[in-house]
Write a structure and sequence with these properties.
By secondary structure, the chain is α/β, with parallel strands linked by helices. The chain folds into 2 domains: 284 residues, 3-Layer(aba) Sandwich (Aminopeptidase); 117 residues, Alpha-Beta Plaits (2-Layer Sandwich), CATH 3.30.70.360. 36% of the residues lie in helices and 25% in strands. It has an 8-stranded mixed sheet with strand order 1-2-4-3-5-16-6-15, sandwiched between helices. Strand 1 and strand 2 form a beta hairpin. Helix 8 crosses helix 10. The radius of gyration is 23 Å and the shape is elongated. 48% of the residues are buried. It comes from Mycolicibacter minnesotensis.
Length: 414
Amino acid sequence: MTGQADRIDEIVTADARRLVDIFKDLHRNPELGFAEVRTARTIAQALGNLGMTVTSGIGGTGVVAVLANGPGPVVMYRADMDALRVPEATGLDYASSNPALGHMCGHDAHVTWMLGLAKVLTETTDSWSGTAVLIGQPAEELITGAKAMVDAGLYDVAPRPDAFLAMHTAPVPVGMVAAVGGERMAGTDQLDIVFHGVGGHGSMPQLTRDPVLMAAQAVMQFQSIVSRSVTPGEIAVLTVGSLQAGSTYNVIPDRAQLQVNLRWFNPEVRDTLLTGIRAICAGIARSFGVDEDQLPEITLAGGATPLVNDTALTERVATALGDLLGKDNVVRQLPALTGSEDCHLLKGPHLDMPLTYLLVGVADPQVYAQSAERGQLFPYTPHAPDYVVDLSAIPLGTKIAARAMLELLTPGRF
């Protein structure tokens, strides 16, 4: 593999300036889930120019590119594309041009790594055999993009993969990778909850049924579900990310909406959370005298099961990356995270497809060390306004993706 590793290094090093420019451009132009029109076009054009068979518009803005190179395994690689409704506060000279949106989770890096990986694949066809399937996935943050692509016919344009690889940025030093088998990420659900009331003048609350107060009580009571209904030792997270109601000072509105996020590993815990939420919402509404036909509406707006890495596949990739980064820089044991993903839903009906999902360090090592000295776990966290992907992580992340992908595109290993 030494010769192949040298070729990867040579190709990516020569391509580094282009990749950094692509990353900066994507970072300046963030797009929300299912609105990644510009990002998807960038992916489709870049992969099409490399000679791949490209299909766009799968599941809205999803992109599928196929590169067939003789007999051998079919390996799928996914990069999610969407940004967040989080204003950027990094101060970078290539910061988001949209004051309301930002790539505060590193999906711009994910796309760039995939485009760099594609160039490596097309320039090393004499050293691998099989079929590469590259996916530009929309709406990961909404936890609906992967399912949308499958439902829209992903496997009508792509062959069934023998293995599946995905990577995500992590706020640990550049040069480190976590490749850990087993259960890695929590299951999640997104809930929209609408309380209905009777609106009126703020000076006469006795004539209203105040949905703002109902929603506020629900926010407080929800916390009792985790503390009093979930078995101690089980992991359960219930977060209210949004409470929206009304438009001015002295008007009690007739509706209030909560957006709630759940995290869980045990399906029984999920059931407990959902049952508790329904009971609390209905109970509060009834206590305010809300009619039975106006009880709160609870809509599941997206979700995913826990992400599980195939142990054998992950160990194989970890060993290959140890040769690239040094064994000490490949973390093979790490507690499962309460973060969530939907990439494994790209498996669709092929539930036995082995997956390895890697966490790739993107923090400046010096910045990370300084934060550690201050007693901080990380210098910044995903979804925070100050989340930064150090530019040195762009070429190195591409090398990691390429090394892992070429390891899996070895005939006779599946």
